[in-house]
Structures are given as structure tokens and as C-alpha cells.
Design brief:
single chain; mainly alpha; two-stranded antiparallel sheet; about 75% helix
């Protein structure tokens, strides 16, 4: 029913003449990914719009002052809308203080754990991601990107909730609804990441994702009004050149391969990924600087809304139980989905562990190496061809990444 309503709405937006026999065939008017995107956004709006109106009304009327303090409703509104800003928190007990304390304790054994954990988690995650979206399971191809996002976020939610209840965290003061912004952009960037693999190769995806530095700079100016040093723009320019070289000279053996590997749709989706992912990091950075919560608290808040958005959308679209049924019918697919969600979750924990013990510079170096290795693994496992020109483009991108790390470290040392 929901799909039928959306199809009618989309047809109403189409300009020009449409033949009667094609009037209700939106697949001839729009690409498949666009229809899925509109459908997902519509279902998200059923949560976002009423929730936003309710929060606005609560704030404008100061409703929290009209109810009994200490009651369930009071505590719920305080947590979700206002946050505990009146509670003084010792910042040194927060994540920033822990990071400074733990960085001096980071030894070779912990570094080895970080390197092995991050590389294993994200190399396996990338391999399974490409396998699920590009291969057939007993004659069927799994295509629901949103279900994969939901499974990733649900497992991460369960694990981080358990972690927070076991290990002590700083007092949480962030209004819960503020995580919904980065949650929405996070699920959209993840959806774009999975969906893009239907149209472009994994190496192309990795190279384009590496180019998000320029988008991060632009989004930082919009969201936080940040000023960036000259080397950031130089490195972003080098990355743009490298990406352009890689895409322009990426070998295509057949016309069919060309339409699959470098279609316009795939590049549009990857641009969407870069924009949404850049907003996520900048918004979360603002929350960290304002409320001083721990990374695990941020992970919990984000995954609460991500699971809510994607789970509700799948239910309304009638796809949640049908996808679960498909997984039950195809054990290999079910195992790959669960394994991918597991490695995505462990990767997030290793990210926080690495940053807390060694800081962001070491983490960035490890992840830059991971991008190189992921391209090698993808080419070996799935047979993606790379020309000499494409290889040069990839080298330019990764040289720019390491130059950025070096320049940032030198700048921090000088201060």
C-alpha cells in the first residue's frame, strides 16, 4: 500500500507526456535506487516530523515546568528534550580526560591490538559488504541496503548498551534528540555505501570515499564555522585530482561492465555518501565539544535513533519480516549478514579503543592503510581490473592522505 501511494506521488511530479500503459510503471521513469530513497525518506518523515513538532511544543510552552518533578514523564522529557545541563560533571572523568591519561599508557601490545583489530574488522566488513551486494545466493541476489543498515545498528546498539552498563561512564547531559541528526545522516551515508555497490566497483567506492576530505572542510564551515589551514586545502585538491584520474582511466572491458561499474547513478550515490558522512562527523564533533559525553554514549544515542528509523521504515514498507524470511531460507546469506554486522560493531569499538590509547593521528594512519589493503583484497577476491593510470590515481590519493596526517602532526607539535 505504501509503495502504491508513493508511486502515485512520484508520478504527480513528472513533467511531460507519459503514455497510458506506462502511467503506473514508475520504474520506467525513475531509477530503482531513487524510488527506494524516496520511500525511505517518506517513512523516516513519519517519525521525524511528529517528533520535531512535539519537541518544539515542549520547549515553547516550558511544559517540563508544569509537571511533577521526579516523575516518569518529567525524567523522560528531561532526558530526551532538555538534557541534564544543570548537573556539574568532572570533565577529567570524561572521554577527553581519559584520552590524555591513556595515551601515555599505549604500549606496543596495545598498538598491535589496535592494528590487528581495525584491519581485521574493516577488511572483513568490506569483503562481506561487497559479497552480499554483488553475488547470488542460491540463484537470488539480496538488494535491500536498508535491512543491512538496520542489522548493523541493532547489533551495535545491543553491544554498546551492555558495555555502558558494565563500565562506568561520565554523567550524560546531552538531550537525546540531538543524536537524531547524526543518526539520520549516518544511516543515509551507510545506505548510500551499500547501494552504490550495485553500480560501481568496491575499489571505485573506496577511492571516492577517500575524497570526502574536501566535503568535510566545506561541511565544517557550514556546521561549525571552522577555519582550516592551507595544507587541508592542498591535500583536498590532490585527492580530487587522484580521484579524477582513477575514475577517468578505470578500465572497462565490455559495455555491460561499463554500465555496471561507473554509471552516473553510482557516482551520484557516492556523492550522497560523502555529504552525509561529512555532516555526521562534524555534528558529532559539535556534541563532543558542547556536552563532553563519552564516545560510547554517543554511539548508544546514535544507534538508538538509527535502529528506530530503519526498523520502523522496514516495518511500514513490509520488508522487515520478508528479509528475515529470505535469510532463514538461505543460511549462507544469513551468516554473511550477521558476520558483517559483527565486524561493523567490533570495528566501532576498536576505533574508540585506538583513539583513547594513541589519539586520532595513529588511528588515521591505520585506517588509511586499511583503505589500501581493502582495494587489494577486493581486486583479488572479485577480479576488478586496474589500469596503470588508475593505479597512479590511487597512489596520488593515498600520498595526499599521508601528507595530511604528517602536516597535521607537525602543526600540532608546533603548537
Amino acid at each position: 500500500m505504501l509503495k502504491w501511494v508513493l508511486n502515485l506521488a512520484l508520478l504527480g511530479l513528472v513533467l511531460g507526456d507519459v503514455r497510458p500503459e506506462e502511467a503506473f510503471d514508475t520504474h520506467k521513469l525513475f531509477p530503482e535506487w531513487f524510488l527506494s530513497l524516496i520511500q525511505n525518506l517518506f517513512t523516516y518523515s513519519l517519525i521525524i516530523i511528529p517528533g520535531g513538532l512535539a519537541i518544539r511544543w515542549i520547549k515553547q510552552t516550558n511544559y517540563i515546568e508544569k509537571i511533577n518533578p521526579g516523575g516518569f514523564l518529567y525524567k523522560t522529557i528531561l532526558t530526551c528534550v532538555h538534557g541534564k545541563q544543570d548537573i556539574e560533571d568532572d570533565i577529567e572523568k570524561g572521554e577527553n580526560g581519559q584520552s590524555q591519561q591513556n595515551k601515555s599508557k599505549g604500549g606496543p601490545q596495545k598498538l598491535l591490538i589496535c592494528v590487528v583489530g581495525l584491519q581485521a574488522s574493516y577488511l572483513m566488513w568490506g569483503y562481506l559488504q561487497e559479497k552480499i551486494m554483488t553475488t547470488e545466493y542460491d540463484g537470488i541476489k539480496f538488494t535491500d541496503s536498508q535491512f543491512l543498515v538496520f542489522m548493523n545498528r541493532l547489533l551495535a546498539l545491543v553491544m554498546v548498551f551492555t558495555y555502558i552498563n558494565v563500565f562506568k561512564q561520565p554523567t550524560h547531559k546531552t538531550p537525546l534528540y540531538k543524536y537524531s541528526y547524526s543518526s539520520f545522516s549516518n544511516i543515509m551515508s551507510s545506505w548510500c555505501q551499500y547501494e552504490a555497490l550495485k553500480y560501481v566497483s568496491f575499489p571505485t567506492q573506496v577511492i571516492c570515499k577517500a575524497s570526502k576530505t574536501l566535503a568535510v572542510i566545506l561541511m565544517g564551515k557550514v556546521v561549525s564555522r571552522k577555519k582550516f589551514p592551507l595544507y587541508e586545502y592542498v591535500c583536498a585538491g590532490l585527492i580530487f585530482i587522484g580521484v579524477s584520474v582513477f575514475l577517468l582511466w578505470n578500465p572497462q572491458e565490455t559495455e555491460k561492465n561499463y554500465t555496471k561499474e561507473t554509471t552516473f547513478s553510482g557516482l551520484v550515490i557516492l556523492i550522497g555518501y560523502v555529504v552525509f558522512d561529512s555532516f555526521t562527523s562534524n555534528w558529532q564533533g559539535e556534541l563532543y565539544s558542547t556536552y563532553k559525553m563519552s564516545s560510547y554514549q554517543c554511539m548508544l544515542g546514535t544507534n538508538i535513533f538509527s535502529s528506530l528509523f530503519t526498523g520502523t521504515s522496514l516495518l511500514l514498507e513490509g520488508m522487515l519480516f520478508s528479509n528475515l524470511f529470505i535469510c532463514l531460507q538461505h543460511v549462507t546469506l544469513a551468516w554473511d549478514v550477521i558476520s558483517m554486522s559483527f565486524f561493523s560493531m567490533t570495528g566501532q569499538f576498536f576505533i574508540f579503543y585506538c583513539i583513547e590509547n594513541f589519539g586520532p593521528v595513529v588511528f588515521t594512519i591505520i585506517m588509511a592503510c586499511r583503505q589500501v589493503l581493502s582495494i587489494i583484497v577486493s581486486c583479488m577476491m572479485f577480479g576488478h581490473p586496474l589500469s596503470a593510470q588508475s593505479f597512479i590515481g590511487a597512489v596520488i590519493v593515498f600520498i595526499a592522505l599521508f601528507l595530511r596526517i604528517y602536516a597535521k602532526q607537525r602543526s600540532s607539535t608546533a603548537k
